[in-house]
Structures are given as structure tokens and as C-alpha cells.
């Protein structure tokens, strides 16, 4: 109980205690059937809907937070997995730089996904639910004021029915009744105007939250699918590199063969004597028939795939050395 002298006067305290006792007495009489109770079936239905809405919204908020926690856990696991692969990936393996970029892009994608769900779904749900405590408090106040109104009504009626009428007390009771009725009806009207709109707003918040969630999920999975395909392509080329190294000296090789290189950047031929290259192509580097024809930074070669199929060097051409790495 609040101490006198700390914001609550003795008179105010006494009034509050009297109100509490009066309300308790009125509720007991109503439960015993000795006093009628003001009832509003339509309003009670609104309150039932409000409580249901608040419970459902709170559950959705909780589940969204759990979903975000799961996204963060998956992000952390993904980061650790990519860090492990980066630590094991040797510098001369195919696609080392691409692997590093892929890890950064994957990390950014997870971060954006988590932030977008937080901003577009969870925060809107937080804002939506922030209205409920204040409305709930006003409903509770309205119910208390309804009890006060019933108590004042019964008190006034009892004075009027008394054998010995005290006009002063009756006038005072009527004044108290009017004041109690006015306070109750003001709160009641406010809530009757507000609760239906709040109830209808649930549809909009659910639509916005799940549309936003679905949109960001679709974007995330689409972009992650591209990154996964890139990872698969790098692993495929790494296996081809391993195969090329393992079998580098096996089988027949074209005349003038020097060594093998693997393409690390696409190269589009700009002249008829140049070789068109795609990332991952294995090229058999050949010696120039006339060394004086070799330009600095350029090599002569033949795609290994062509040689294995055709066994001829008609498709040989020159290509920039810095678009490849030796295997």
C-alpha cells in the first residue's frame, strides 16, 4: 500500500479504499443474485474477440521470434561451414578466389534475409501488439466503472424505496449516480467505437506479415539457389582439375605438348587464331612452331576435351596466359 506523504494524500487513500470495498460488496451482491448487473452482450462479444485477438497475436509474435532464431542459427552454421571449407581450400586449387567471394555473398544473403524479416514482419507485429496493453487497461477500467455505476444505481434506488426518505441523501445519491453513469458511458462508447476496428485490423496485419515473409523467403531461396549452383560448378571444376593432374602424363598427347592449364576467367576470342575459353576449360599448352611468333603473355593451346574426342590439333589457338593457371 502506498505510504501517506509519497504522492498519495490520506483523503485520496481513504477514497480509493472505499471504492475498492464498495466494488467488492457490489460484486458479491450480484453473484448472490441480490443485485442486478448491467450487461451488454454485444460488448462482451467484443471483449471476447479482443482477448482472442491478443492471444493469437502474441503467439504469432513468439513464433516469428523463434523462426528468426532458427534463421540466425542456420546463418551461423552456414558461416562456420564456409569458414571450414576456406581453411581447407588450397591456394592452387581451382576457384580459390571464387570460393572466397561465394562465402562473402552467402553471408550477406543470410544477414539480409534475417534483417528483412525483422524489419518487415516482426517489427510490424510488435507495433500491432503494442496497442493491446492500453486497450486492455481501459476495458478493465470500464468494467470497474460499470460496477461503480451499478452500485450508485442500487444505492439511489434503495434510498428512494426507504420508509424514511432523506431528501439530502437522495439528492446526493442521484448526483453520484449521474456522475458514475457519465464516466461509465464515456468509456463504454469509446471502446464500442474502437474495438470493432481493432478486431478487423488483424486481417491486414496477418496479410502484410505473411506476404512480406513469403516474398523474402522466395527471394532468399532464389538467390541461395544461384550460389549453391556456383558452389557445385566450382566443385565440379576442382574434380576435373584433380583428374587432369592425376592423368596428366597418361595416354597420347598432341605434338609439342608442354603442360596443362585450367581456365579461371572466361575469354571471348576476338580474332580467328584465338581460342574461346570458359571457366574450367582444361587447355593443353603447345610449343609454337616458330617461337618468334609468340607474343608476351600469350600461349598456344588446344582444349583437352577437343583433343580427347578428335585427336587432332586443327582447333588450336592462342589465348592470354593470365586467364589461366597451371595444373
UniProtKB/TrEMBL annotation:
InterPro entries: AH/BAR_dom_sf, Amphiphysin, BAR_dom, SH3-like_dom_sf, SH3_domain
Subcellular location: Cell membrane, Sarcolemma, T-tubule; Cytoplasm; Endosome; Nucleus
SUPFAM superfamilies: BAR/IMD domain-like (SSF103657), SH3-domain (SSF50044)
Transmembrane segments: none
CC per GO annotation: axon; endosome; nucleus; synaptic vesicle; T-tubule
Principal subcellular localization: membrane
Keywords from the UniProt entry: Acetylation, Cell membrane, Coiled coil, Cytoplasm, Developmental protein, Differentiation, Endocytosis, Endosome, Membrane, Nucleus, Phosphoprotein, SH3 domain
Pfam families according to UniProt: BAR, SH3_2
Residue ranges of every copy of the SH3 domain listed in the record: 256-327
Gene Ontology biological-process entries: cell differentiation; endocytosis; establishment of localization in cell
Domain BAR intervals: 28-244
GO molecular function, one term: tau protein binding
Keyword Cell membrane assigned: yes
Protein name per Swiss-Prot or TrEMBL: Myc box-dependent-interacting protein 1
Amino acid at each position: 500500500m502506498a505510504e501517506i506523504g509519497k504522492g498519495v494524500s490520506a483523503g485520496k487513500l481513504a477514497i480509493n479504499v472505499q471504492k475498492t470495498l464498495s466494488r467488492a460488496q457490489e460484486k458479491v451482491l450480484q453473484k448472490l443474485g441480490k443485485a442486478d448487473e448491467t450487461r451488454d452482450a454485444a460488448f462482451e462479444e467484443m471483449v471476447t474477440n479482443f482477448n482472442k485477438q491478443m492471444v493469437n497475436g502474441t503467439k504469432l509474435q513468439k513464433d516469428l521470434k523463434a523462426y528468426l532464431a532458427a534463421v540466425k542459427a542456420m546463418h551461423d552454421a552456414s558461416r562456420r561451414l564456409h569458414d571450414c571449407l576456406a581453411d581447407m581450400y588450397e591456394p592452387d586449387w581451382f576457384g580459390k578466389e571464387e570460393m572466397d567471394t561465394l562465402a562473402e555473398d552467402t553471408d550477406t544473403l543470410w544477414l539480409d534475409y534475417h534483417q528483412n524479416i525483422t524489419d518487415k514482419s516482426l517489427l510490424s507485429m510488435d507495433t500491432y501488439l503494442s496497442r493491446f496493453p492500453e486497450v486492455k487497461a481501459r476495458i478493465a477500467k470500464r468494467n470497474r466503472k460499470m460496477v461503480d455505476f451499478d452500485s450508485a444505481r442500487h444505492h439511489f434506488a434503495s434510498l428512494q424505496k426507504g420508509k424514511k426518505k432523506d431528501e439530502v441523501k437522495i439528492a446526493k445519491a442521484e448526483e453520484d449516480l449521474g456522475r458514475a453513469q457519465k464516466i461509465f458511458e464515456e468509456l463504454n462508447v469509446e471502446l464500442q467505437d474502437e474495438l470493432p476496428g481493432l478486431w478487423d485490423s488483424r486481417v491486414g496485419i496477418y496479410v502484410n506479415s505473411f506476404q512480406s515473409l513469403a516474398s523474402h523467403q522466395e527471394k532468399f531461396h532464389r538467390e541461395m539457389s544461384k550460389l549453391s549452383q556456383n558452389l557445385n560448378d566450382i566443385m565440379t571444376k576442382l574434380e576435373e582439375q584433380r583428374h587432369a593432374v592425376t592423368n596428366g602424363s597418361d595416354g597420347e598427347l598432341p605434338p609439342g605438348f608442354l603442360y596443362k592449364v585450367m581456365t579461371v576467367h572466361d575469354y571471348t576470342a576476338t580474332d580467328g587464331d584465338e581460342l574461346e575459353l570458359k571457366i574450367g576449360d582444361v587447355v593443353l599448352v603447345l610449343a609454337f612452331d616458330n617461337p618468334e611468333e609468340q607474343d608476351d603473355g600469350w600461349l598456344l593451346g588446344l582444349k583437352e576435351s577437343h583433343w580427347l574426342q578428335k585427336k587432332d590439333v586443327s582447333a588450336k589457338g592462342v589465348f592470354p596466359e593470365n586467364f589461366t593457371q597451371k595444373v
